Amino acid sequence: YMDKLETLDISNxxxxxxxxxxxxxLKTINIYGSKGRCQKIANELGGISKVKKNDxxxxxxxxxxxxxENLKGQIEVPPKGSD
Length: 83
Prior knowledge:
This is 3078_t:CDS:1. The chain is built from 2 helices and 2 strands; from the N terminus they run E-E-H-H. It has a two-stranded parallel sheet. The mean pLDDT is 76. The protein is 35% helix and 7% strand. The chain has helices at residues 38-48, 55-72; strands at 7-9, 28-30. The longest helix is centred in the last third of the chain and has 18 residues, at 55-72. The protein is mainly alpha-helical.
């Protein structure tokens, strides 16, 4: 049943084994986040093939961080007790 599987996303999961069960035609494994045990698989894949970061996601996160910093300067917080 997995012979048609081309993309697998195990981001932020506790999956840390089972690479041997994946089909040969699997093209992409998405692994985002470092809190789950899935990083063990990312480390194993690092030795087998090139693990790429999602560049578009990284660019968008950077843009949003800059936007948040800009907005912080525009927010006025009233002093405590000025209700």
